Amino acid sequence: IDISTLRAVTGGVTTIDAGFKNTSSCESAITFLDGEKGILRYRGYSIEELAKKSNFVEVSYLLIFGALPTCDELAKFKADIRKQSLVDEDIKKILDGFPKSAHPMGVLSALTSALTAFSPKSVDVDSPEEMYDAIVKIYAKLPVLASWAYRKEEGLPLEYGDNSLGYVENFLKMMFDLPNEVYKPNPVIIKALDKLLILHADHEQNCSTSTVRIAGSSHAGLFASISAGISALWGRLHGGANQAVIEMLEEIKEDGGGYEKYIAKAKDKNDPFRLMGFGHRVYKNFDPRANIIKVAAEEVLADLGIDDPVLDIARGLSTVALEDEYFKSRNLYPNVDFYSGIIYRALGIPIPMFTVMFALGRLPGWIAQWREMRLRKEPIGRPRQLYIGATGRPFIEKEER
Ligand code: ACO
């Protein structure tokens, strides 16, 4: 039955589900998530196994193209990325127009959208070859733009990477190389960051991914759709939570380290404060990514010999909150971002870059979801509404209002 007939038969009945709490927007074969059991799988592979045995580029390939790559496929993917790892020099002029105080997420979103202007053929791609070309371009260029967003803020000269290095090492080099000092990352840092990128790589129809799919459903290009996703990720209730968590933990530390006051504030319905890094729309027992990250955070701090009082506050806060009736009754558990900020900080990533790191990790998921949506020839996303405004009103002339 088509939608017009259905509406005619039912008298225009529609469903309303604010926040899409129980509405599937699409069919997808990319990521499986069971919020009750705390299961997360990419293309059928468990997140625990991927985090342990794979690496970010391989997982990216898996998400985007549907299967773990053979050695030849991986080598070709990497070679194609290498060829696209330069950015048009004119992009630097756009970057120059931003104030140093600009948040790197705003800069990243704008520069990603600007890429379209320098690659007009990537706009409305249809064939698998054109799609592949656009995918490789954005995958290669986003880390460059991300590192430039940081270097702009720091007033540092813009760098290109060293294509002989692995993904994470190359990104860190682009971020932290100084004109007179080559940055040599510790292998512990490389491994931890790679794991974090894998854990963030996809999460089915979350806010930013739904944004990418819906923007792309109008046949806006891949870069414009990813730019929209970056903007959606920026918010504190989504990717921006990782920055908000560390700022909250820092505030608690400055305030003497007592977290009970903050737990009370979070429970007070007259106070807008929320415990950042707690709660998830889908996970109702635990967030499997948070479990992996918690262990990784402990390991990284131990390996690097860092004694971070903020980690103690995080441990205490989560223990107390988990025993509290308010949090228990609402199934509020630490999410992926409760611990990620602690690791980022230990690895020397500056706070405003935390959400940018999330965007780098989520990129393969956004690409995979956009590609799937286009290959399935999904219709334009266009929800209906339940109108609650005034009924027909006669126009009143200015003088008579
Ligand atoms: N602190 C205190 N109370 C909370 C919190 C929190 N962090 N999260 C939810 N609640 C409460 C709500 O006030 C509400 O209580 P009520 O039933 O008495 O009104 C109840 O729990 C349900 O909350 P909703 O907002 O309806 O849950 P929703 O699924 O819409 O929101 C969200 C999920 C946005 C993640 C929410 O838990 C939140 O704001 N958390 C803090 C921000 C955060 O960490 N975001 C990152 C999410 S993970 C990610 O995007 C990668």
What is the strand and helix layout of this fold?
Layout: H1 3-10, E1 31-34, E2 39-42, E3 45-46, H2 47-53, H3 56-65, H4 71-83, H5 91-96, H6 104-118, H7 128-154, H8 167-176, H9 187-200, H10 207-216, H11 222-234, H12 241-254, H13 260-267, H14 288-303, H15 309-323, H16 325-329, H17 336-346, H18 354-375
Antiparallel strand pairs: 1-2, 2-3
Helix pairs in contact: 2-9, 3-18, 4-7, 6-7, 6-11, 7-8, 7-18, 9-14, 9-17, 9-18, 10-11, 10-18, 11-18, 12-15, 12-17, 14-17
The site of acetyl coenzyme *A has 19 residues, from helix 17.
Please provide a brief summary of the model.
InterPro entries: Citrate_synth-like_lrg_a-sub, Citrate_synth-like_sm_a-sub, Citrate_synthase, Citrate_synthase_AS, Citrate_synthase_bac-typ, Citrate_synthase_sf, Citrate_synthase_typ-I. By secondary structure, this protein is mainly α. The chain has helices spanning 3-10, 47-53, 56-65, 71-83, 91-96, 104-118, 128-154, 167-176, 187-200, 207-216, 222-234, 241-254, 260-267, 288-303, 309-323, 325-329, 336-346, 354-375; strands at 31-34, 39-42, 45-46.
**Shape verdict:** globular
Mean pLDDT: 93
Query: How is the biggest beta sheet arranged?
Result: 3 strands, antiparallel
Instruction: Report the portion of residues in β strands.
Output: under 5%
Strand order of the largest sheet: 1-2-3
Q: What is the element string, with H for helices and E for strands?
A: HEEEHHHHHHHHHHHHHHHHH
User: How many runs of DSSP E, i.e. beta strands?
Assistant: 3
C-alpha Rg, in Å? 23 Å
* Cα-to-Cα separation, first versus last residue: 47 Å
Unreliable stretches covering 5 or more consecutive residues: none
Oligomer: single chain
Task: Report the total helices.
Answer: 18
Structural class: mainly alpha
